[in-house]
Amino acid sequence: MPLIEVVGLHQKYGEREILKNINISIDKGEVLALIGPTGAGKTTLLRLIDLLDMPTSGRIYFDGIDVTESRRIRLEARRRMAFVLQKPVVFNTSVYDNIACGLKWRQAGKNSIREKVSNILEMVNLSVDRNRNARTLSGGEAQRVAIARALAIEPEVLLLDEPTANLDPISTSRIEELISHIIHQYDTTIIMATHDLSQGQRLADRIGVLLNGEILQTGESSEIFNFPRNREVAEFVGVENIIDGVIIASEEGVATIDVGGNVIEAVSNYPVGEKVSVCIRPENITLALSKSASSARNSFIGQITRVVSVGSLTRVIINCGFQLVALVTKKSAEELKLESGRSIYATFKATGVHTIRREGD
Predict the structure, then answer these.
(1) Per-residue DSSP letters for 324-340?
(2) Cα–Cα distances in angstroms (integers) from residue 227 to residues 40, 278, 354, in the given order
(3) What is the rounded CA–CA span in Å between residue 287 and residue 148?
(4) Strand 254-259 and strand 241-251: pairing?
(5) DSSP at 335
(6) Strands of the 57-62 sheet, one edge to the other
(7) How far apart are CA 116 and CA 334, in angstroms?
(8) For the segment 318-339, what is each residue's pLDDT rounded down to a tens digit?
(9) Is the pTM for the entire model greater than 0.85?
(10) Which residues have a Cβ under 8 Å from the Cβ of 119 and sit 6 or more positions away?
(11) Torsion 345-349-355-361 (CA) sign
(12) Do the beta carbons of residue 84 and residue 146 sit within 8 Å?
């Protein structure tokens, strides 16, 4: 039985529908990342799970109990959860007292509070700041205090809303290290909202893609990123090569797809005549100056239209009769002398192609 189960959840503010038919379950000890752009409904869903707000319709079950039934049940469930907001709230008192406040509200003993807070201060690397006013901390330090305060009450469920939003790279790294430590040292169930896809990959067991108020796909990160369920998910997770076509032949699980006069071969079980979108991740495309003798089924000669450096990688845009975007190392780009106007062979395997049925066509 899942620890948390959301069934048929809808939320409206006035006439605006924020969440539509949300169905999701989270097991005890699981880390779930809700990824989606700003305005997708991530914060609204976290607030509903934390029982801060009531849904327009639908049910939320905690340990098999419908927590939407009564105020008393909701209060009992809320005491088992902690919510860390995107903009951390710190009180105008010391770091120590900020972390201790939840324990004091629950009337824990002084010795227990002292021991727990001291251990948590050490874990979040703020021991030397224990007597410092929390209002003087940096954004990253304040977020660590907020997470520490949440952990002090030993919640079964920790809800994190964009925990590294607006933080610099060093502060982001420290928060992620802290979350990773919590994941490995505690049996806490974590639900984290983030627009950072790579953060979801690094930290979560499972990812739910929330777009326009709907969860369009859930699964392990490799499944989401390599096998997106539809075009919206593919675009959000960064599949830059999405090419429309029609399956014109299929044999032994390999489909031949017409893409505007060219053909791409892909591992697919869709039938002949099916209208599909072909998805190819840029990193799965190999570039060469001459046609190679590899076993890859797809090889196209094209002309480079643009070369852009992206950190240690180089993004190469090629016109092959259809546009392809490839991602290669900077060293490979230099060795191949890649530049606009140059002819290049782009090669990729049939297994590196993911096909999606085109809806509504």
Answers:
(1) EEEEEEHHHHHHHT--T
(2) 21, 11, 6
(3) 48
(4) antiparallel
(5) H
(6) 16-26, 4-13, 57-62, 65-66
(7) 55
(8) 999 999 999 999 999 999 999 9
(9) yes
(10) none
(11) positive
(12) yes
Q: Are 212 and 40 in contact (CB under 8 A)?
A: yes
Distance separating alpha carbons of residues 258 and 275, to the nearest angstrom? 10
How many Cβ atoms are within 10 Å of 246's Cβ, its own excluded?
16
Please tell me the distance from the alpha carbon of residue 207 to that of residue 33, in angstroms, as a whole number: 5
> From residue 72, how far is each of 4, 75, 80 by CA, in Å?
18, 5, 13
pLDDT single digits (tens) 237-277? 989 999 999 999 999 889 999 998 899 999 999 999 999 99
* Nearest-10 Cα torsion for 89, 91, 92, 94: -110
Q: What is the DSSP string of 237-278?
A: TT--EEEEEEEEEEETTEEEEEETTEEEEEE--PPTT-EEEE
Residue with tokens 């509903």, as numbered in its chain: 48
Using alpha carbons only, what angle is made at residue 34 by residues 36 and 281, rounded to the nearest 5 degrees?
Answer: 60
At which residue do the structure tokens 């105008």 appear?
Answer: 92
Q: Which two tokens stand for residue 311?
A: 């950190």
* 74 sits in which H/E element: helix 71-78
Counting every residue written for the chain, the total comes to: 361
Question: CA-CA distance, 106 to 323, in Å (whole number)?
Answer: 61
Query: What's the CA gap between 303 and 52, in Å, rounded?
Result: 56
Distances 95 to 124, 161, 307 between C-alpha atoms, Å: 11, 21, 49
**Residue 235 CA: distances (Å) to CA of 117, 253, 260:** 44, 25, 21
Tokens of 44: 């609204």
